[in-house]
Amino acid sequence: TYPALAGRTAVVTGAASGMGAATARLLAANGAAVALLARREDRLKALADEIVEAGGRAVAVAVDVTDQASVDAAAARVRTELGRVDLLVNNAGVMLPNPIEDGRIDEWARMIDTNVTGALRVIRAFTGDLLAAAADGGAADLVDISSIGAHVTFPNYAVYGATKAALSHLSASLRTELGPRDVRVTNIEPGLTDTELGTHIDNAALSGELDGMYDALGPLAATDVADLIAYATSRPRHMNLRQLVVLPTRQA
Ligand code: NDP
């Protein structure tokens, strides 16, 4: 358990499934109030109900991070329902691999708009809250979920990897602006993790290749990454775990 999380106010994007849902559950179980953000409102509502039934505090806020008006509306609702946010987990993402010569500009645009510009829209919405919370002497955290794909190159994953490299760089750069004002920036780069991420792949051969990797490597569970997030954000506020790389033991 992480007693330091009690009383925190968190936003988790991509909370409809996978790492985001696991993180929201764990933060709430440790006493944080949690805003659940993603597009599938039915999933968010079911998770919010589950958290509230377990004695926690959660609110489901439907949002599409690729739509600026939707992010603005979601941020306003979060503030009305939960007040000032002091913990932001930027986790929403999509992974759509295909050979570069296929020229799938629709997929490239979706990945860039979700994984990079979407993350920026959410950072824009809540940075003021984080700075204010830190100025008042409390802990304040920005957590970005990047990927080992930011460093390791794979055929067919060029654009996904590029979006994650951008996000990792963004985390490092923002740390220079926010760290001196006591807002921690934690960048997490997981390897293969058992979630819904691969289910949107529009290429049977590449889906099969990914399934084979899951079978061979014994992936991380979403709860493993959630645990790292809870650990990092519950350290004393002068201590910043800046960069966490976590892979299944068998992933080379
Ligand atoms: P999931 O697909 O289970 O989760 C992704 C979440 O993002 C979903 O809840 C989805 O909800 C949400 N999302 C997608 N698009 C949008 C959008 N436009 N607006 C709002 N929310 C959106 O996969 P993971 O849990 O694995 O993914 C979480 C993060 O982890 C991603 O950034 C991914 O790149 C990263 N990652 C994953 C790895 C893995 O092996 N699984 C490895 C390394 C990094 P909805 O569809 O309802 O909007």
Describe this structure in words.
- Belongs to the short-chain dehydrogenases/reductases (SDR) family.
- This is SDR family NAD(P)-dependent oxidoreductase.
- Residues 8-216 form the Ketoreductase domain.
- Keywords: Oxidoreductase.
- InterPro entries: KR_dom, NAD(P)-bd_dom_sf, Sc_DH/Rdtase_CS, SDR_fam.
- It is a single chain.
- This protein has 252 residues and is of the alpha/beta class.
- It has one domain: Rossmann fold, CATH 3.40.50.720.
- 47% of the residues lie in helices and 16% in strands.
- The protein contains seven helices and nine strands.
- The protein has helices at 18-29, 41-53, 68-82, 105-135, 158-178, 204-217, 222-233, and strands spanning 9-13, 33-38, 57-62, 87-90, 141-145, 184-190, 193-194, 220-221, 243-246.
- The strands form two sheets. The protein has a seven-stranded parallel beta sheet, sandwiched between helices.
- Strand 1, helix 1 and strand 2 (33-38) form a beta-alpha-beta unit.
- The model has no long low-confidence stretch (mean pLDDT 98).
- The site of NADPH dihydro-nicotinamide-adenine-dinucleotide phosphate has 31 residues, from helix 1 and helix 4.
